[in-house]
Amino acid sequence: MQCTEVGFEAVVGRATRTAGAAESARAASAASAAGALLAAADALDALADRQRFVAAHPTAFAPPRPLPYAGDPPGLQDRNMRELLGGAADDEDAADAADRELRARLAQLEAGARTLRAECREAAKTLDAAEAELVRQMEGPEEAWRVDALFGPGAAPAAPPAPEDDTPRRDQEDYYLAKFRSYVSCAGRLARLEARAAAARERLLGGAAPPPAPRSPPSPPRRSAARRRGYFAAPLDERLPAVLTSCVRVIAAYGLEHQGVFRVSGSQVEMQALRAAFERGEDPLAGVRDASDINSVCGLLKLYLRELRPPLLPPQLQERLLRVAALPDDAAFVRRLRDTLGSLPLPSLLVLRYLFAFLAHLADHSDRNMMDAWNLAICLGPTLLAAWGEGGAQVAAQNLVNELVKRAILHHEEVFPQDVAPHALYRRLEPTDAVDPADEADGTDERPEDAADERPAGTAGPDDDDDGRDLSLYGDDDDDDDDGNALNILTLRTLGTRLVYSLTVCLSTDGGPGEGEAAAWSRPTSHR
Question: What keywords does the record list, in alphabetical order (predicted)?
């Protein structure tokens, strides 16, 4: 017996240890898979998903181009009419009376538009609350999703769910649809009022309409996209780009305490309008004096960083940057990241230094805007450096990218050299230092000198035509109601909410076969 049992315990012990190691490895793999599932669930963002979907199908969701004005300017029309009528032309008194009547009509239209705009904002807030309640009822109580009691000692099988009365949910759905219908109706009326006011304002100012654009054959999508990127995302030089400095100025002045800044998506229509203005060499944000357009300004800045070519962080540095992000020691992280970014061109380094200093300023107000360094990294990490891979590898890489951006925000002064190009340093501007429109109208400027330096070169003051107006998305080349079809593009934003609507309204007033009204809408779901 002693001979036959030699090695028995050793073999049995080795087999038992192997079985235990296999079970331990299986448990670790299951825990890793569960962690990946939890990370994927935490990364769900309805607004960002809608934004990516719209960006992936620009042809289907791009707003229609405004109809070009093919007629003569109003002044030329008046001269031609006087030459045609000769001595029968109206005297100056009649012209002045018509001018006064048109100005009175314009004042009525603008007053009605302001009232409707406030009504639409209140309707949007009510709609957001109705949607939140509907989502809560769809999710059900928190106890219905708990699975802790199904495992461990004393676990009992789950009881079948009891049938629930869905009458409250159906009533909430009807209430939500009624509020949405009311909002769309209000938005349509506001679009028509804005179009009429724009036409009257153009007639009173006597500005010449732009000449009709020459027709050209359609170009391939790639060439068209490259052409649209011409001035908006032009290659960098030693001067900070105007898009970056203008967006940062507005956000730093009016958006530091805006809850959900960079997380809530802006209006696609409004961002395209702002982009088109920058393409023309203008600064459409020079006259912004409130936080009503902050989400669109943040979206424009993210769009600029995403379309910049070459990118600020080239894909060739991804592996090195991910290894740096995995370093646990902050001192080693700062040293390695500083060396890695030292290989970038100087213009890219200056833009990154300016951007991360601004993000650190934004993170300092996280108690009000709810956007600390980690939340900002989640929103801007994929924009600055897209993670490659498949499945869990991509999720892990994206987490490292977010960690890299977060730590770069926290240690930006040590990562980026502060003694190079001092003219391109970010200077903090607190919300209390912003220019008040009333003070500016009196000719006084109480901003600190540093804040004045932050205005981009060539930026003028606010426009004098409309104080307190939102960024206008209604073109000034809309025709009168009796001149045929008028295309009005409306984007309404909810102030202080996470609801963004985009509405495209096409109006036909000629009474022909195309008479009627068609509306196409796209509204991102609020992120909760």
Answer: Coiled coil
